[in-house]
Amino acid sequence: MTRRDALLFVFVGFLIIGTGFTQSWNSALLILNMGLISAIMALGVNLQWGLAGLFNVGVMGFVALGGLATVITAMPANAEEWSVGGVRVLAGLLLGAGTVIAAIMVHQKLPAGRPRTLTMLATLIGGFFLFRFVFDGGVEAVEAVNPAATGYLGGLGLPILVAWPVGGLLAAGAAWIIGKTALGLRSDYLAIATLGIAEIIIAVMKNEDWLSRGVKNVVGLPRPTGVPYEIDLQEDAGFVETAAGLGLDPATASTLYVKLVYAALFAIVLIILLFLAQKALSSPWGRMMRAIRDNEVAAEAMGKDVTARHLQVFILGSAICGIAGAMMTTLDGQLTPTGYQPLRYTFLIWVMVIVGGSGNNFGSVLGGFLIWFLWVQVEPMGLALMQLITAGMSDGFWLKQHLIDSAAHMRLLTMGVVLLLVLRFSPRGLIPER
Amino acid sequence: MDFLNAIVAFANFVLVPGTAYGAQLALGALGVTLIYGILRFSNFAHGDTMAIGTMFVILITWGFQSVGISFGPLPTALLALPFGIVLTGLVLVGTDKVVYQFYRQRKVKPVVLVMVSLGVMFIMNGLTRFIIGPDDQRFADGERFIISARNFKVMTGLDEGLAIKTTQGITVVTAVIVVAILFWFLNKTRTGKSMRAYSDNEDLALLSGINPERVVLYTWLIVAALATVAGTLYGLDKSFKPFTYFQLLLPIFAAAIVGGLGNPLGAIAGGFVIAFSEVTVTYAFKKVATYVMPEALAPDGLLQLMSTDYKFAVSFSILIIVLLFKPTGLLKGQSV
User: Fold this and answer.
1) Same domain, residue pair A247 and A389
2) For a Cys staple, B8 with which of A106, A316, B160, B222, CB 3.0–4.6 Å?
3) What is the Cα–Cα distance from A350 to A373, expressed in whole angstroms?
């Protein structure tokens, strides 16, 4: 890191601290926490784009899988649902997976020709109906149990910190499937395939009530060990006393304290991942990846297996996004599938990577904080701007009302303009690759 | 008689909507495929280009409606369409001058252009929401049906009705006209031929004295027309919502890739393949089956292969299958 880079980090730090002084410390800490998570997502995307030149437009899907991981690891199992249909649902899923594997085996074992195609189709169609028959019955039974409160299988009841690596694993699994099909073809295909898988993951999470209650959301996710609940803090005499000593009322102090503990947890994860990413970048493996990125043909001629290396780095990057997704859901304390919007979870992360400096891990981290800060602050700034523009118009004039109402959409516009300006005038970003 | 009823039910719920949707997707995919063939990148802003074009049409339609201009039984939006196309064309050519031209002259890698198109998508999306808002807008007027279900039942004496909405009829007719003009243009006119030459072999085309900027200009204008028509037809048939148009990106790209990127005929074929698969897989066949099967065998389920919420999964699966077995698409596309 050079002096200039350090100054940039200090600048972003000032922006966040400034929010604390001018608005509230609560919002400053909120920005900090989400900034830490965004920085981790940006690290993952930077690994794929900066190091390998892979274009992943499905960040949202991997983030959502991380969120799903928190539910299936940390929520307690719902005994009644398991007894009425849990086994049947699992059997159905296994049958489905078995069908796909059988079809792949048919494709590999039999000689090419019409018999192979027909056998494969028969396996797939027969397997599909068998899967639906077993699976649907189970799902219906599970979802019928107490739908207002549970109606899903629940999880394993493990500590929620376990969900973070599990989220990474789930995302890695999805990335493997996508990578296997779309890597090795033209670069645009990967983009479109990832765009698709992200939409499908969200569709599954919205509709499969037995898995995570769909749009009814799972609330009340447990907190990581070491993160207290606000209400307990407020009843703790020692804490109230310390807060009073700092001149804070117990309610504010408890929310600030909880956010600080989260920030510390997230910072540890970020530092570990950043350390690993830096090591990877300067290792022989990292040099090989960059060589492949800069000239695939030459790297292939040197005996490097380009597709396999791409698959490797694609899975790694997606896993990091999955970890970040699990962390984010942990912070929210609930899983809301409708909250996943591609513009917010995919393209915003891209803006972070590009603005920060693709190919540079510190750049991605900086971009994560800076763009998240802008994303949060542009809306009030846009509103203020609109009020300034419309100040001269008379009340009740249609344009005035319309402009003020539309201020919320300034975000997309601003992010697009920022992205285009950086790509045009400073394509290497704030902290360029070295 | 029952068999006829089954056919009518199938036509009403699968064939007619599928054809209309297929025509809309085909027009969208044609735009994507043209840009891919000539400018050589996947334009992620295409869904939002459709949205912005439709927005212009809607605004002009509202203007016409407020001064009392109408198109008789046809939707007023058709009158507004040419104006919408001109405005969208201006936007696209402007975008090209301000944004894309710079990268084209530097001959950057296609993936950088894809990234740039992401930025354009952000801005277009933001502008659309800024001007017309993120909510649903309905702007269809005129006659609702060519044949309504009730009239059909009276006419034929069948139990099942076949309804054809005016918008569905207009979609198919307009799509046929647009595609005919497009192919005439590409195959018969001098400019069209130079566009195809440029798409086939850029260097050779430059050597023969084809002006690349002119080719690019015409491409954007054609794409503006295609996107606006596709978006307006989709909006008339269903409804206009900016986010839905962004989501259309996936089936449109799937259609273009399935048909073979860069191949206009393929885009049309791909559009119908995707549309019919989507509609067939998500349609509940219970009604059709009850007519065809004997009563004892009548199904108690909905006979729906997949819930409608998974329609994206259908286009995605087809896309994956094509990528696995025939990466250049059904009709041969470019493989740059």
Assistant:
1) yes
2) B160
3) 15
What are the pLDDT digits (tens) for B88-107? Answer: 999 999 999 999 999 988 88
pLDDT tens for B30-39 read 999 999 988 8
Q: Cα–Cα distance between B42 and B45 in angstroms, integer?
A: 9
Tokens of A283: 């290792």
The confidence score (pLDDT) of residue A182 equals: 85
Name the domain count of chain A: 2
Paired residues of A348 in beta bridges: none
Taking CA B271 as the corner, what is the angle to CA B266 and CA B272, rounded to the nearest 5 degrees? 105
CB spacing of A412 vs B125 below 8 angstroms: yes
The answer to whether A203 contacts chain B (CB < 8 Å) is yes
Q: Is B122 on the interface with A (CB under 8 A)?
A: yes
Helix, strand, or coil here: A335?
strand
Q: From CA A400, how far away is CA A398, in angstroms rounded?
A: 5
What is the reported pTM? 0.89
Class of the B2-325 domain?
mainly alpha
- What is the structure's pLDDT at A53? 87
Question: What pLDDT is stored for residue B98 in this prediction?
Answer: 93
Does residue A432 sit within a domain? no
Query: What value does the mean pLDDT of chain A take?
Result: 89
In this prediction the ipTM stands at: 0.85
User: Are residues A95 and A211 located together in one domain of the fold?
Assistant: no
Measured between beta carbons, the chain B residues lying within 8 angstroms of A181 are 320, 323-324
The partner residue sitting opposite A350, judged by closest CB among B111, B118, B335, is B118
Cite the beta strand spans of B208-321 per DSSP E: none
* A186/B335 CB distance under 8 A: yes
Per residue, the 3-state secondary structure of A198-249, as one string, reads: HHHHHHHHHHCHHHHCHHHCEECCCCCCCCCCHHHHHHCHHHHHHHHHCCCC
Contact B123 A424 (CB under 8 A): no
Q: Say how far apart CA A434 and CA A359 lie, in whole Å.
A: 8
Q: Is A416 on the interface with B (CB under 8 A)?
A: yes
What's A86's DSSP letter? I
